[in-house]
Design the sequence.
């Protein structure tokens, strides 16, 4: 295998960046659509169906046929997908309003900050260990070179993820301040307090995988968590997963903890004064953050690119018959499926659990989650000490 | 192209350093406290870049996590609550040039005193970097984190613990100062 020169490796990294961004921008709109639909079905309605391919498209034609037969058409699950294009067009074309008393520079930079912080986290996420695919030899300039499964295989990947994700707080806080209006300011303050508080149990719950795997590298951690642990490690993994997911919901300001927005208390929270594509950036950043949390949860707890969650793969693999060996190997598709499952869980929880009161949010973080994460860390340390 | 990229790669430390200095200067120069905090954030990120250019990944990431992610957010939290239009707060935040000049002079004196030997003294017999056999291959950063933890928890354990006690004292002191008597 030829060693790439510096320029070639930079080109390969750019290709990886394009791939990851493409992945993100495919998953995010589909999540938005799924949120409308799944939430609709959870509340016993059809979700968005209006912007459909109508009378000329094939789904519209088949749907009309089924309605005429007096049945709810199966394809209405997919009706409304063209609405995604309409949504994006609306965001781009809408007038961009700048409040008269707003701080222009900060108002401008806040959505960019939260968007950039959300996307850049993916630099350290490794989708599959080792080589993802080898570029074909006809490819100009970088033909025949391997493309690895993550952009940057840094050995402090977890710290990078936590650090950059914590920079994302600025977007929300600055947006709240720069709007120079009381509801956004309240939303911004709430979110600063909430996100700074929930970062503590979030980081602590991720310390248990660090202790168990003895590494800070994303790929190494996920492979050791998936296939390198004894059965004893199940307990800290499952508990840690539940805690991490709870904190992840709070970090991304999703529904049981959506204090920064809380539409029936604060209009729309920190982005009340935003419109057009600046609002679109916040919207995107929220969904990208959800994807990030989903990627971390599936990478560290659900086995990452391996099939079975919670380290069960390592226990099952020795007994796997030869014809099933494909399921014993890491594949990027497993990782993506897990991400999608957790994104579904987000919507599921949103449709199920009502919002906490603000003081309850804080007491959940400081009085329950932090002691639980400390206990979990202790459990992980015991397992590490005696069983690994 | 190759040559240009290599030159840039070699001079990353200088690039990030100049950017950090520029951001720090902007932080002093800005009139609005929130803008100052933003410039401070940028300076902190650039210093993390400096650490990365020195192959101290762990320190760089800790810099982002602790300063950019934690401390500066709390600065921002405080600054946001202060309305800068009032005269009293303006005095507190913006019109302290006499004290500022004195502080800068004292700081410069301390800096010169401490770093005189570093700048003008003879070079140490060993270069102050990780050993090259530790920095080989992909194991750089793991060795990096291990090197940091070894020096913290083995070589310099006592100073480290004393520092943490000092931090604790500061924390408790802040709570005592900030707590008002409840009636």
Sequence:
């Amino acid at each position: 295998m030829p060693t790439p020169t510096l320029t070639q490796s930079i080109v390969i990294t750019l290709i990886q960046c394009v791939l990851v961004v493409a992945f993100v921008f495919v998953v995010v709109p589909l999540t938005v659509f799924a949120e409308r639909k799944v939430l609709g079905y959870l509340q016993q309605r059809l979700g968005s169906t209006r912007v459909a391919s109508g009378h000329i498209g094939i789904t519209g034609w088949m749907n009309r046929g089924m309605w005429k037969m007096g049945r709810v058409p199966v394809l209405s699950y997919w009706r409304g997908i063209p609405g995604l294009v309409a949504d994006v067009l609306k965001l781009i074309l809408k007038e961009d309003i700048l409040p008269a008393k707003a701080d222009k520079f900060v108002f401008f930079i806040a959505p960019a900050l939260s968007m950039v912080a959300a996307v850049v986290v993916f630099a350290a996420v490794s989708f599959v260990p080792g080589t993802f695919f080898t570029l074909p030899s006809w490819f100009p300039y970088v033909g025949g070179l391997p493309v690895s499964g993550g952009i940057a295989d840094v050995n402090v990947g977890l710290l990078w993820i936590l650090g950059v994700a914590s920079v994302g707080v600025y977007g929300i806080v600055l947006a709240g301040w720069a709007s120079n209006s009381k509801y956004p300011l309240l939303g911004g303050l709430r979110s600063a307090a909430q996100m700074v508080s929930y970062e503590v149990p979030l980081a602590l719950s991720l310390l248990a995988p660090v202790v168990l795997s003895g590494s800070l590298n994303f790929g190494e951690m996920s492979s050791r968590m998936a296939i390198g642990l004894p059965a004893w490690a199940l307990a800290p993994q499952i508990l840690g997963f539940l805690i991490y997911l709870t904190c992840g919901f709070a970090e991304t300001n999703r529904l049981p903890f959506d204090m920064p927005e809380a539409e029936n208390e604060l209009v729309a929270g920190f982005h009340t004064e935003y419109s057009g594509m600046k609002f679109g950036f916040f919207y995107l950043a929220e969904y990208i953050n959800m994807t990030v949390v989903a990627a971390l949860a599936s990478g560290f707890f659900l086995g990452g690119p391996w099939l079975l969650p919670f380290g069960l793969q390592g226990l099952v693999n020795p007994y796997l018959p030869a014809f099933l060996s494909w399921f014993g190997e890491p594949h990027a598709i497993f990782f993506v499926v897990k991400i999608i499952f957790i994104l579904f869980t987000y919507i599921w929880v949103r449709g199920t659990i009502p919002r906490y009161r603000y003081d309850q949010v804080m007491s959940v973080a400081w009085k329950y989650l932090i002691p639980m994460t400390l206990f979990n860390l202790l459990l992980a340390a015991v397992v590490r000490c005696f069983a690994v | 192209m190759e040559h240009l990229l290599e030159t840039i790669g070699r001079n990353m430390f200088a690039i990030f350093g100049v950017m950090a200095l520029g951001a720090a200067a902007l932080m002093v120069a800005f009139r609005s406290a929130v803008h100052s905090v933003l410039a401070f954030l940028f300076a902190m990120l650039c210093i993390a870049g400096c650490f990365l250019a020195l192959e101290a990944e762990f320190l760089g990431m800790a810099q982002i996590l602790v300063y950019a992610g934690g401390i500066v957010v709390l600065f921002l939290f405080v600054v946001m609550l202060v309305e800068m239009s009032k005269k009293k707060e303006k005095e507190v935040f913006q019109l302290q040039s006499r004290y500022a000049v004195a502080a800068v002079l004292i700081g410069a004196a301390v800096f010169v005193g401490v770093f005189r030997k570093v700048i003008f003294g003879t070079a140490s017999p060993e270069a102050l970097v990780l050993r090259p056999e530790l920095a080989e291959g992909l194991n750089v950063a793991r060795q990096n984190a291990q090197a940091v933890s070894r020096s913290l928890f083995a070589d310099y354990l006592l100073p480290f613990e004393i520092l943490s006690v000092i931090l604790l004292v500061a924390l408790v002191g802040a709570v005592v100062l900030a707590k008002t008597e409840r009636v």
